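Q: Given only this backbone (185 positions), what sequence would you predict?
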């Protein structure tokens, strides 16, 4: 297959809240993959957390970090996560896209369709760089994406060309401002 990223993104609905694209490494190949979240008010005493294609414990951690560091209160909401195409994302680079989809679904506001997000999120809400940033950004540019949101560390001393804008952030709270053009919830 010439470009599997095109296959994974071919049926993407870009206007729906709760969806974002991340750049993930599968072996030595960079793949752009859609991550979906559905956040709904829970009627249960213990809200459900259902994940397909992502570690459930990682989802719990990112939800807790969003509540603490970004003011997005998910503790009384059911959370459903899906990685489109049957892939299993195991690297922490998908954290930033996961956080964006959770915020997007919670606010009912779509992530801009021309944006790719990647970066690891630490327990205090910091966004950390990940390996192979240049390859991830090149794959996003190749598929026509116009903007990448990642950690400041991933962008230091690198130039990526005029076809794609790279925005560096240092904390998960900045996702609200950079991606959704709003302050913390």
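A: Predicted residues:
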């Amino acid at each position: 297959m010439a470009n599997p990223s095109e296959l994974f993104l071919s049926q993407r609905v870009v206007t729906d809240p709760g969806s974002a694209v991340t750049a993930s490494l599968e072996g030595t190949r960079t793949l752009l993959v859609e991550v979906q979240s559905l956040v709904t008010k829970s009627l249960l005493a213990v809200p459900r957390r259902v994940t397909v294609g992502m570690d459930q414990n990682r989802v719990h951690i990112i939800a807790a970090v969003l509540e603490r560091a970004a003011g997005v209160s998910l503790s009384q909401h059911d959370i459903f996560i899906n990685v489109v195409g049957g892939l299993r994302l195991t690297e922490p680079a998908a954290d930033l896209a996961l956080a964006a989809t959770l915020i997007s679904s919670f606010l009912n506001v779509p992530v801009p369709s021309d944006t790719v997000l990647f970066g690891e999120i630490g327990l205090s809400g910091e966004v950390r760089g990940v390996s192979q940033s240049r390859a991830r950004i090149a794959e996003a540019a190749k598929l026509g994406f116009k903007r990448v949101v990642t950690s400041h560390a991933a962008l230091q001393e690198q130039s990526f060309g005029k076809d794609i804008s790279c925005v560096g952030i240092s904390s998960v709270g900045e996702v609200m401002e950079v991606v959704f053009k709003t302050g913390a919830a």
